[in-house]
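Why Outer membrane biogenesis protein BamB? Reviewers of the renewal asked for a concrete example.
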Amino acid sequence: MRLLSQFSAVLSISCCCLIAISANSACAADWNQWRGPDRTGYVATTPAVISELPALGLTPTWITDSIPSAKGGGWGSPVVADGKVYLFAHKKELVGDPPGEKQFPYLSPEKRTPLSDEEYAEYEKNRRAEDAERAKAYEFREFVLAYDALTGQEEWVNQSESTYTRFPQSGCPTIVAGKLLILGAGRTARCLDAKTGEQLWETKLPGEFSDEFYQASVLVVDQIAVFNATHLFGLDLNSGSIVWSGDPEQTKSKHASPAAWTHQGKNYVISIGNGGDAVCLNPQTGEVIWKVAAEGGSASPVVTGDKLLIYGNSRKKGLACFKMTPQEADQVWVFQRVTDKGSTPIVANGAVYVQGERKLACVDLETGQQMWMANLDMENPQWGSPIAAGDIGFYAYDGILGFSLNPDEFVTRFDAKIDKNHLLAPTSHFRELYQMDSNDLDAEARKKALKDYQQNVGRHGPLKCATPAFADGFLYLRLSDRLVCYDLRAASQQVSQR
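Here is what the prediction returned.
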C-alpha cells in the first residue's frame, strides 16, 4: 500500500444516524450505495468545500495499489460506509494458450450497414459464441475490497471464483446494517460482513445464464434486498432466501438500479421495467402496484418526495418527471434537450442537474423549465453520472468538473485534470506546464508538447463510466488502475496554507 497522507494525525469522523429513503439506517457522512444515501446523487450534510483548487493543485490524501479496472476488472464505483471505502472488481486471468485472431470481431455501427438485420443477428450470435470459447483460456474471479476511508489502508479482500460475462460485472456495493450486498456474475447474489469481509450468504438466482452481465446495484427496503438480474428478485436480507420473484415481463430490465419511495410511512420499490416502463412494487411481495409508460433506458430512476425522474437514452425520450401516488403515476413534464446512454441526474434543492452529449443542464424540478445549459470540454462523455454535496456538484470523466449548485447560472468552481503522479490541479496549470498554449513553439516542439501532455496528464484521469463517491468532505475516485482520495474540505486547505 502506497499512502500519501497530507496530515500527520488522522481526523476522526463523527456522524449521526438518519433514516434514508431506503428505510435503512445510514451515517450522515456516508455514501453507502449507488447514488448516495437516498439515491438522488446528492448529500446535503457536508463540511464546507473549497471554492477553488490551489493553483498548483492537490496531492492525494491517499492512493491504493493497483486494482484491475475496465475490461480487466469492471467499471464499478466506490461507496463509503462506517469509515471504510468499498469496491467490487471482476477480474480475468490468462491460464491457457492466448486466443488467436478473432473471426468475428465487434462491428461498429458504420460497419454493420452492408448486413441485413437477419445477417447481423447471425453475426452477433457467432461473435458471442466465439467470445465464450476464447474465454476458456481465462479464469474469472471476483474481488470485494475494503479500505480505511481516512488512510487508504487495505482492511480486507474477499475473493471468490466467478465466471465469464461479455463485459465485466460492475455493480456498486450496497452497505446496510453492517452487511455488504453485491450481485456477482452468473446471477449470484452475495452478502458479506462489511466489517470483516466474511461471506454471510450466497444465493443463485434462478434463470437462464450464458454470458450476460448485470450492472445494477442492490436496493434494500424493509429488510428485503432487491436484485435486478434480467428481472427483479426480493431476498431476505438476513438469510438470502428468495422471498419473491418479480413478474418476468413487467419487471424485465437491463442495467438500471431500482430506487425506493416512501409515501405516508409506507415503502415502495420503483424500477425501470419492460420497454422502459416505470413500475411500482410492493417490497414485501414483489407485486406490481402500477406501471406507466416512461421510456427509460439504462439510467437509474431518481425519487425525490413524490416525484419520479426517468432519463431515456434519446432526446425524444428525454428526461421525464412523474407525480406518484400509491395508485398511479402521471407525467408532469419532459425535458428533451440532452440525452445519454446511462448517466443518472442529480436532484438538489428543487433543481435537477442532468448530463448528456457534452452538455450539463439545470432544470426546474417543478416545471421542467431549463434554467441554464453549459458545454463540457470533454471527449464524448457517456455512462458516467454526476454527484453533488452541499453546494457543489462534481462530474468526472476526462477530468473533474466542479460546479456550483446554483439554479440561476452555471458557475465553474474548478476544471481539473489528474496527472501520472495523481496530482489534481486546474487544467490551466497543466497546459502551462506543458506549454500547450505557447506561441513560441515550432511544429515539432508543439507535437512533442502534445505528446508529453497526453502521456503525463491525458491518460491518467478518472475511469470512464465509474462515478465518484463523496463523504465528509473527501472525494473518492476510481482511476484507470486504482482508487484515490482527495481532501476537499475548506478548513483543511486553510491549515495547509499557514
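Confidence is low (pLDDT under 50) at residues 1-26. This is the kind of structural detail the renewal will allow us to pursue systematically.
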